[in-house]
Amino acid sequence: MSEYIEHDKNRISVGIVAKQFYSFAEPPDEMVLESGAKLGPVTLAYETCGALNSDKSNVILILHALSGDSHVAGYYKEDDEKPGWWDVMVGPGKGIDTNRYFVICSNILGSCMGSSGPCTINPKTVLAYGLDFPVVTIGDMVKAQKALLDHLGIRKLLAVVGGSIGGMQVLEWCVRYPEMVSAAIPLATTVKHSALAIAFNEVARQAIMADPKWNHGDYYGGPKPDLGLAVARMIGHITYLSDESMRLKFGRRLQDKSDFSFNFNADFQVESYLRYQGKKFVDRFDANSFLYITKASDYYDLEKQHGEGSAFKAFAKTQAKFLVISFTSDWLYPTYQSRAIVQALKKNGRDVSFCEIEAEWGHDAFLLPNERLSALIRGFLERVFHESRK
Amino acid sequence: MSEYIEHDKNRISVGIVAKQFYSFAEPPDEMVLESGAKLGPVTLAYETCGALNSDKSNVILILHALSGDSHVAGYYKEDDEKPGWWDVMVGPGKGIDTNRYFVICSNILGSCMGSSGPCTINPKTVLAYGLDFPVVTIGDMVKAQKALLDHLGIRKLLAVVGGSIGGMQVLEWCVRYPEMVSAAIPLATTVKHSALAIAFNEVARQAIMADPKWNHGDYYGGPKPDLGLAVARMIGHITYLSDESMRLKFGRRLQDKSDFSFNFNADFQVESYLRYQGKKFVDRFDANSFLYITKASDYYDLEKQHGEGSAFKAFAKTQAKFLVISFTSDWLYPTYQSRAIVQALKKNGRDVSFCEIEAEWGHDAFLLPNERLSALIRGFLERVFHESRK
User: Fold this and answer.
1) Taking 60 as the threshold, does the pLDDT of residue A359 lie above it?
2) Is B141 left (phi over 0), alpha (psi -120 to 50) or beta?
3) A258: which chain B residues are within 8 Å (Cβ-Cβ)?
4) Which residue has the higher pLDDT, A312 or A133?
């Protein structure tokens, strides 16, 4: 996700939140992964906001994308500069109204934001896993989230909501635990990565693995592959924007100069922006987690698992009502991929609404303030909440 | 350009060609570059095919893109596996018919294919230039080509033809030496790089510069920044294709396996393809040349030099007839950028034809066999050749 979103510290938010942790699958009862490998113990970092109602019918699970975390809204401390990553959507009176709903957001398996991943300690070696961490899938991430919800005593989700890789988890939740999900909002996502999306991820992974400091994933305690990870992040940032959004945001404007430098420093604002985003990312993200999460997203393929075209049975058992949302300028998961989700849902007789939102900000659009998007989500949630209580 | 084009060794070609060299601008008469820096001596590698007619009225100058060279058509030796990079277009009876026209193709300044560039010897130090090579522009490349034509006694060009960065040189030729150019065919190009195109180039450059073996450009005689250059090339290859072409060419097919590896090897064919293209490229191309040529293309901006919008005067003095060609699936230089060229030409009262060719192969389409493209170019050249002899 981009980080140029400007937040107003004075506006309404859920206030102070705390990161929590849940560990399970203690050996010898490890979690069995899709690959067949076992992992345990498994820790998930998570946060909640809003209040759980008495019949536990107001739970919304929010699922994050590649570089996100459990910190979906609010602040950890009074003087935090930035709120959670979807504070524009989640809070009192917002699209996902924390006055009405109880929100849970869990950091995904494989990440580096508090959950088990390659940078956490392998109990067998008492060292960071590195590449000994098993390759996990979107299904594994969802299975771990289910364990967390069991622990929290949540048996029913009013809605699962998420964009991008978070949207894949939304779809997986509906398919894997159909009886638990009343409504689903997959944003800017797909049932399977296109060759183009795989290509971008692969080149980003190659950039990391080309950095000698990556050292086959074994760099914890030593110098990190910051240069490789920065390049990987820059590639990502290009895919999150669009031709149009870059033209509007940067055009050919020069950065702090009136003419070309005639050297290899950054001349253009877009170059400066990318360099800055790359540099900033390495302070907060782990290169191996980048490898694992992008691989999980490349592997995700509801058609491979459940049949494609007219045989598309992935959604046959789902019970959720769907609101599928795409953005006109998203070229990582273009609208035709959301339409494919909608068609597959309709073939299976599901209750599905679809909206393509006019937005010039590319794939990132779902993270940005957008009153139309907020209103759409607010209205859909009101309807399903009302219907679920009939 | 891509390298998956399959060539038929038995088909018609211009036959055996030889790379030639021309050196000029011997000190103290160095070439003055756009930056103000001086360069000399300057060497250009070039090749010719077809025969110059008696009044020298059948000369076509072909201008190559980023990774091209002077070897536009034919073979160096009988047992060469591959012909020149545009053999599908240039040869007897082809779109650019060497039975009728005398073709010249010069390697660009800054390249590593025989012309002066960062990997050639700096006479002052008797070592490779590295980053001491001055940053050159598209204008500098064209100015050097003009010196070559003077040397060859060519005063008039029937046509200048080129795609991508070669197309920028086409436009620059028409603007800089209007009296010399009768016709121009810019393919899949632009008057200025978009922020998106700059972004891709910048990330590719960062990948090279992140490789410790790059060593600030000083690696000649030591290990080369192959890993960084390979990543840069992979980024390029994504931009040369398109969502559609990658879906058709690769989809989600696995490479030599029936299921996922659950590790970080290449699972998908598109990953294998990119890794292969990256690896192959480093054997034939110089990382510093990649930096210099991409920078030249980012700097190119006819609007900055000549005014934009209704004040667009770049083409005011051009005398050439234009055939502007774009490709539907090219998202590096999308059709709207070719339309902008056409509009600017029309504003200046030029004779311009425009064709957007339906093609699923993205930016690379201009290099691939395409009978419609060949027929279009053949017909246009016949017309201008006929008119030039009236």
Assistant:
1) yes
2) alpha
3) none
4) A133
What are the chain B neighbours of A228 within 8 Å (beta carbons)? 210
B132 catalytically annotated:
no
- Using a CB-CB cut-off of 8 Å, the residues of chain A touching B238 are 196, 199-200, 203
Which pLDDT tens digit goes with each residue over B312-363? 889 999 999 999 999 999 989 999 999 999 999 999 999 999 999 999 889 9
Q: Which residues of A touch B212 (CB under 8 A)?
A: 212
B330 is catalytic: yes
Alpha-carbon gap, residue B214 to A140, rounded angstroms: 40
Alpha-carbon distances, residue A254 vs A269, B209, B298 (angstroms): 5, 21, 12
**Of B89-98, B128-137, B253-262, B301-310, where does mean pLDDT reach its minimum?**
B301-310
CATH topology classification for A3-192+302-388? Rossmann fold (3.40.50)
Of residues B164, B242, B326, B338, which has the active-site annotation? B164
Please give the model's pTM, rounded to 2 decimal places: 0.95
Compare all CA atoms of chain A with the CA of B202 and give the residue at the minimum distance. Answer: A271
Q: How many residues does chain B have?
A: 390
pLDDT band for A352, please (50, 70, 90 cuts). very high
The residue from A67, A115, A164, A242 that is catalytic is A164
Q: Comparing A196 with B9, which gets the higher pLDDT?
A: A196
CA–CA distance from B321 to each of A315, B52, B61, B79, B384 (Å)? 58, 22, 15, 40, 8
Write the class of the CATH domain B193-299.
Answer: mainly alpha
- DSSP 8-state assignment for residue B238: H
Q: Do B210 and A231 touch (CB under 8 A)?
A: yes
- Cβ of B198 within 8 Å of Cβ of A235? The answer is no
Domain ranges of chain B: 3-192+302-388, 193-299
Instruction: Give residue A3's pLDDT.
Output: 40
Q: What are phi and psi of B348, to 5 degrees?
A: -95, 10
Per annotation, catalytic residue among B69, B329, B363, B364: B363
A-chain residue closest to B131, CA distance: A263
Task: Supply A55's token pair.
Answer: 């019949």
ipTM, two decimals: 0.94
Q: Could A301 and B267 be called an inter-chain contact, meaning their C-beta atoms sit closer than 8 Å?
A: no
Q: Is A321 a residue whose pLDDT tops 70?
A: yes
